[in-house]
Design goal:
With about 625 residues, the protein is mainly beta. The chain binds [4Cu:2S] cluster (CUK) and dinuclear copper ion.
């Protein structure tokens, strides 16, 4: 592109950028390698090919949507490294099969699936601390915590009074709360009252303690909420919403041209809870944050309702904490909300300081830390790059702040840039999570994969560059991209972190602890289980506990018990337990499910269930 001369106005520069971007799009610039580039692509993007044996620079945690899991990708390779089951059941990990995970899922409602949307990694001082990831269940009103030492789900909170937890995000700078944003309006409590009176329905904003995973308090609001993001200073938390009409049909929900972004004043809510200004519903203090609540009348309302056009969907706070940007979804603009101004203005609408016209169907926004925002355009199938301060300077509805647009394939939902949710984004890679892939991959029947596209955003001069397509099983919504060195996964389990007793070789026991109950504690190693056979009686309850005594990383065993629906995994130094009923007499070959050595197939043991006489 032509370099702007020094006398050029900022806005002219933006226009020049937009033209260059448009031309780039026409030229079908999709990251061809330049022969003289030494591995560089034409736009100066670093080579996204990570050679065999080399490690990626970033972790990307993608939600699996209605698959109910989290996928872990390496970036920039986009190699899928691991899946973390969360609300689903997953046999390779024994998740939902061993006693601990089975009880956790049971206590969290007993559902067999969930709909993960927003994985957010915990932060300290507005930077990833590598401790936890959190993710919502949009289907069943839950929030899960994933331990990033072991990459496993370690707690699930079933959020009372919330049907459908959509937005999920942390209150920063130090992850004081994890917020679950309630979507569906329903009677509260939902015990049969008001079923025919939708005006009495409500939705709540829930603050969860990340250590205990208990709901500390909730705020009841008007209208539907949707997504959420927290300011970086611990005061304001923003949610988008639709259906301020409080309708129950689509036509009722889209009647009005405006909806509400809600700004929750966290310290003011805490003060209301402290002062006892709440009603306890299903054991949770619920504060009234509806517009006519007395708590919203004074100078320091607990919730500010900011009218925005029309069914705003994504909201995200800029890295410098200056603005919250809400995307219009059914309106071609984004609303730039000045966070500091929110404290000063009496009419919250005055805090909206920019409204750039971005394109059709703006959904979600990410940041590069250089003053640009990147917004997905669902209907236009594009990512638009725009200048945030230029949008504040420009007239409402101006397209001038637009720097560049790039086509994506097709219909993007979220997009996420590296470390975009922190105060210091890296500004190099961006993933566009596209809902449709159409003809980009080999056909696999009527259900297509989705398409996660990697885009290089590190070159402001030459523009965005599409680098990679990655087919993805339905359906990632959001992601968090974290520098690899901020996460320190364990290589093997620390037995101290496990509640069950470690059983070494020679310590194995079979004990009849009651007339109809047998307790087995044994070890596993290449290529044996602690007992070559275990005999119980028909009708016994069997508690089977197995320790993997391997010290070598990567040597996993599992215990599969045919016809008992059991597969529990034991990673090195891990102890796992399963309790089951031995109801049917017979011989059952218990075997190891991981190909652990050349004698893996011989690694088995007999469960003998003796007939009752
Ligand atoms: S929502 Cu899915 S595309 Cu759940 Cu964040 Cu917007
Ligand atoms: Cu252990 Cu195969």
């Amino acid at each position: 592109m032509i370099l702007p001369n020094l006398g050029m106005e900022r806005r002219d520069f933006m226009k020049a950028g937009a033209v260059a971007g448009a031309l780039g799009g026409l030229a079908g610039c999709t990251g061809m390698l330049d022969d003289n580039s030494g591995g560089q692509t034409t736009n100066g993007a670093p080579n996204a090919h990570v050679p065999p044996g080399e490690l990626d620079e970033y972790y990307a945690f993608l939600s699996g949507g209605h698959s109910g899991d989290i996928r872990v990708l390496g970036l920039p390779s986009m190699r899928e490294i691991m899946k973390i089951p969360v609300f689903n059941h997953e046999s390779a990990r024994g998740y939902g099969f061993d006693d601990k995970s089975r009880e956790m899922l049971e206590e969290a409602g007993g559902y067999t699936w969930g709909d993960t949307h927003h994985p957010r990694v915990s932060q300290t001082d507005n930077d990833y601390d590598g401790r936890w990831a959190f993710v919502n269940d949009k289907a069943n009103g839950r929030m899960a915590r994933i331990d990033l030492q072991y990459f496993e789900t370690d707690a699930i909170c079933n959020i009372p009074n919330q049907q459908g937890t959509h937005g999920a995000c942390c209150v920063l700078p130090d992850t004081k709360y994890v917020i679950g944003v309630g979507e569906f309006r329903a009677p509260i409590p939902n015990d049969g009252r008001d079923v025919d009176d939708p005006s009495e329905y409500g939705s709540v904003f829930a603050a969860i303690n990340p250590e205990t995973m208990n709901v500390e308090w909730e705020v009841l609001v008007d209208g539907n909420m949707d997504n959420g993001d927290g300011g970086k200073e611990g005061k304001w938390f923003f949610t988008t919403g639709y259906n301020s009409e409080e309708g129950v049909t689509e036509s009722e929900m889209t009647r009005s041209d405006r909806d509400m972004v809600k700004a929750f004043n966290i310290p003011a809510i805490e003060a209301a809870v402290e002062a006892g200004n709440y009603e306890t519903i299903n054991e949770v203090p619920v504060v009234d944050g509806r517009q006519d609540s007395s708590l919203n009348q004074g100078d320091d309302p607990i919730v500010k309702y900011i009218p925005t056009p029309k069914s705003p969907h994504g909201v995200s706070v800029t890295p410098d904490n200056k603005y919250a940007i809400a995307s219009g979804k059914l309106d071609p603009t984004a609303s730039v909300i000045d966070i500091e101004a929110l404290d000063e203005v009496s009419d919250p609408e005055e805090a909206i300081v920019g409204r750039p016209r971005l394109g059709m169907g703006p959904l979600h926004t990410a940041y590069d830390g250089r003053g640009h925002a990147y917004t997905t355009l669902f209907i236009d199938s594009q990512v638009v790059k725009w200048d945030i301060e230029a949008a504040v300077e420009a007239e409402a509805m101006s397209e001038d702040p637009v720097v560049e647009k790039i086509d994506v394939h097709y219909n993007p939902g979220h997009l996420i840039a590296s470390e975009s949710y922190t105060s210091d984004p890296e500004g190099d890679w961006l993933i566009s999570l596209n809902k449709l892939s159409k003809d980009r991959f080999l056909p696999v029947g009527p259900m297509h994969p989705e398409n996660d596209q990697l885009i290089y955003i590190g070159d402001d001069e030459n523009g965005m560059e599409l680098v990679k397509d990655k087919p993805s099983y339905a359906e990632p919504h959001d992601a968090s991209i974290v520098q690899a060195d901020k996460i320190e996964p364990a290589k093997v389990y620390d037995p101290e972190d496990i509640d069950l007793e470690y059983t070494g070789a020679g310590d194995e026991t079979i004990e009849r602890v009651a007339d109809d109950r047998v307790e087995v504690k044994m070890y596993s190693m290449r290529n044996e289980f602690g007992f070559p056979e275990i005999t119980v009686k028909e009708g016994d309850t069997v508690e089977m506990q197995v320790t993997n005594i391997e010290q070598t990383s990567d040597i996993l065993h599992s215990l599969v018990i045919p016809e008992h629906d059991i597969n529990i995994k034991m990673a090195p130094q891990e102890t796992t337990k399963v309790t089951f009923e031995a109801d049917d007499p017979g011989v059952y070959w218990m075997y190891c499910g991981f190909f652990c050595s050349a004698l893996h197939l011989e690694m088995r043991s007999r469960l003998i269930v003796q007939p009752e006489d």
